[in-house]
Design the sequence.
């Protein structure tokens, strides 16, 4: 990082050569803009708020606005500062501005702009050289944790580092961290008091070593501008007009810096979409966008709703998703209007299991490529990175090149490599490894080995690196279970060979190929064809999204995924995890009333058609379901039930429940113990809905218990005596649940 010079911080006005590519007059810049974009481009005075939906050409509008102001002589290029959130977006903005003849305009990220100012003014404000910038803070956080006598593995270290970053961008000091976490209803990866202690020592170590981190760049710039009015005035004389892109993603600290840049002026243009707020876990908040008119009553507000990216069919689904949203951001949602010719309807596909879903997706992708869609114009988007492995494998098997975005390939992840080493060692040791003494089959051997690497029957609470690590290990456990089912009698050595072959296939060099990415890392991108996969309850919304706000952010995340598609959109889910597994999963609630055959939220009748159709993927169990003798009615209000979960409970979801809460908790505790003994996930014993139904019905006999959906003959024989004992207020017999 080199210190900025006077000329780079305060660039001179561009010379004539910089305008050679510019239009001959200002009005020519407006050619080709739609009426709303033109309104943005010509609103050059006072505060301006642009509410821009996905695919509506917001970058085009704001770059033409700056160029129009420059060509009209209203804006000096060197007096404009445009800020955004990624280097890619800033680079794109600079390129467009150069093409429009406004090459002297500064387009930077918040951090880049602040760092240049900090480097320039530090000698004057503080004296000496600017402290060294930490490129990565993880090592110092690790040292702080060690001094606090807290042991953190690599994944916990990443999570704690993320918590420190969140605290700093929300302007939370170490002493206030525990209370701030509680107030924000935030799931901390460790005890908040412990993290606060590590955070405090981390800050002390930085001071002792004369280093700063990226958050300090903003904090120190804010501090200088607050304390040194002469420096603040100098910056305000230089930058007189501000443009902020992706304004829904600003943190409180970034807003504070923007306020100081502005001073008492109002020459500000912000652009954003509250419906694309998906980074609240990093401190981003749409409140500044939503409150803009309150803070600036005279602001010009322009809405961009003409969608130039997606077909009417894709836009219809995107609008439908937001129509069901709740909360403040939903009140400001934008109804998009597609400007493209009609295209194919979104395809909804239900598969029997996850491997079938991946294989079906790979087949569809291969067909699209054969039909002329470039592989680089196709994306598979999922909720978490651990879902990538089965799609990496399916695409590799189908001979389709792919590339991962925002994550390592599955077999390159540190935890997967470590697990592979451990499994290889256990395979070599064979019967001499005491770890395998009680493991009777291949899956139990794998579970025993991976339990030393962090795998547990229950996933860790919350999100973050620890959860990511567990998901990767859980994927290996599932792979072992599927392998053993496909090859009875297979040994641990056979599995290791299989893993090596899969790794070799997925490590093959790839050319431009299909993009595999998480929904978060897909923000700001677009493709001709998008496959949204794994859309089941528990994954979308993710299981650890508990509050209404968290659920709504999950809905917005799916909305972002839908709006990445230009032409082809496929949405799919699997009823079971593995082949032959129980088809107990449900498609995401967010598609209720939107996918054909589903009821809208709160409705008990068939949903509107709306185009598209639910297809049955290869091998689906859908056709083998047992027929019912007649309609099932709610035992509270008498309405006909269509939702599987409602049928299980024998009541509408929003009808009052007479569930015995104490009994439900005792059943959950018993289920956890059974799952631990059987080394299976809890839902393999009974699902939450089945436990709720039991707690509501309080059965007293085998017959009454058997009538509850989700019990069945096998589970009645296996767990019936325990469940009836608990319902009777007694302790179940000691044992392994086999009765």
Sequence:
């Amino acid at each position: 990082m080199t210190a900025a010079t006077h000329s780079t911080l305060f660039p001179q006005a561009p010379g004539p050569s910089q305008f050679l590519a510019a239009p001959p007059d200002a009005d020519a810049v407006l050619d080709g803009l739609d009426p709303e974009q033109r309104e943005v481009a010509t609103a050059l005075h006072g505060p301006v708020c642009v509410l821009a939906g996905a695919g509506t050409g917001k970058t085009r509008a704001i770059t033409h606005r700056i160029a129009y102001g420059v060509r009209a002589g209203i804006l000096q290029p060197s007096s404009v500062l445009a800020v955004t959130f990624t280097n890619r977006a800033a680079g794109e903005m600079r390129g467009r501005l150069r093409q429009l003849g406004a090459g002297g305009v500064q387009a930077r990220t918040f951090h880049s702009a602040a760092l240049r100012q900090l480097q320039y003014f530090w000698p004057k404000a503080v004296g000496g050289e600017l402290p060294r910038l930490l490129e990565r803070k993880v090592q110092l956080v690790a040292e702080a944790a060690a001094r606090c006598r807290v042991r953190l593995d690599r994944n916990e270290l990443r999570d704690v580092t993320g918590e420190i970053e969140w605290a700093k961008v929300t302007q939370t000091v170490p002493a206030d961290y525990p209370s701030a976490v509680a107030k924000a209803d935030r799931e901390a990866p460790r005890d908040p008091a412990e993290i606060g202690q590590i955070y405090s020592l981390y800050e002390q170590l930085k001071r002792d070593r004369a280093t700063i981190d990226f958050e300090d760049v903003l904090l120190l710039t804010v501090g200088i501008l607050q304390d040194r009015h002469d420096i603040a005035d100098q910056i305000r004389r230089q930058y007189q007009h501000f443009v902020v892109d992706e304004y829904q993603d600003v943190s409180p600290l970034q807003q504070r810096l923007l306020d100081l840049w502005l001073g008492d002026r109002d020459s500000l243009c912000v652009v954003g979409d509250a419906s694309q707020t998906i980074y609240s876990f990093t401190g981003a908040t749409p409140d500044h966008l939503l409150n803009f008119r309150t803070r600036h009553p005279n602001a010009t507000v322009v809405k961009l709703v003409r969608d130039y990216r997606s077909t009417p069919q894709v836009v219809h689904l995107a609008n439908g998703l937001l129509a069901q949203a709740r909360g403040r951001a939903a009140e400001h949602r934008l109804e998009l209007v597609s400007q493209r010719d009609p295209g194919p309807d979104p395809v909804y596909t239900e598969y029997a299991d996850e491997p079938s879903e991946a294989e079906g997706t790979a087949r569809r992708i291969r067909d699209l490529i054969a039909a002329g869609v470039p592989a680089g114009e196709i994306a598979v988007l999922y909720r978490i990175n651990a879902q990538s492995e089965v799609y990496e494998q399916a695409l590799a098997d189908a001979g389709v090149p792919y590339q991962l975005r925002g994550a390592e390939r599955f077999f390159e992840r540190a935890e997967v490599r470590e697990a592979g080493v451990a499994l290889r060692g256990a395979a070599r040791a064979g019967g001499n490894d005491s770890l395998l003494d009680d493991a009777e089959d291949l899956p139990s051997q794998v579970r025993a080995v991976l339990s030393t690497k962090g795998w547990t029957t229950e996933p860790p609470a919350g999100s973050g690196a620890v959860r990511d690590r567990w998901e990767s290990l859980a994927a290996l456990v599932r792979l072992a279970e599927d392998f053993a089912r496909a090859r009875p009698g297979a040994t641990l050595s056979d599995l290791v060979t299989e893993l090596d072959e899969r790794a070799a296939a997925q490590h093959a060099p790839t050319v431009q190929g299909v993009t595999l990415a998480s929904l978060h890392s897909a923000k700001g991108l677009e493709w001709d064809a998008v496959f949204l996969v794994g859309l089941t309850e528990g994954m979308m919304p993710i299981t650890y999204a508990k509050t209404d706000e968290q659920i709504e952010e999950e809905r917005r995340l799916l909305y972002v995924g839908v709006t990445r598609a230009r032409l082809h959109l496929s949405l799919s889910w699997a009823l079971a995890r593995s082949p032959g597994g129980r088809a107990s999963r449900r498609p995401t609630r967010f598609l209720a009333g939107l996918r054909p055959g589903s009821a809208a939220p709160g409705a008990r009748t068939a949903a509107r058609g709306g185009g598209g159709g639910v297809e049955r993927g290869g091998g689906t169990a859908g056709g083998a379901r047992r027929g019912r003798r007649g309609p099932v009615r709610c035992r509270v209000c008498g309405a006909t039930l269509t939702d599987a979960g409602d049928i299980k409970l024998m009541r509408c979801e929003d009808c009052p429940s007479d569930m015995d809460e104490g009994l439900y908790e005792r059943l959950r505790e018993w289920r956890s113990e059974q799952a631990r003994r059987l080394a299976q996930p809890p839902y393999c014993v009974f699902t939450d809905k089945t436990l709720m139904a039991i707690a509501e019905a309080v059965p007293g006999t085998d017959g009454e218990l058997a009538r509850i959906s989700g019990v069945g003959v096998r589970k009645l024989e296996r767990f019936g005596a325990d469940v009836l004992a608990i319902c009777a207020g007694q302790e179940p017999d000691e044992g392994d649940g086999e009765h």
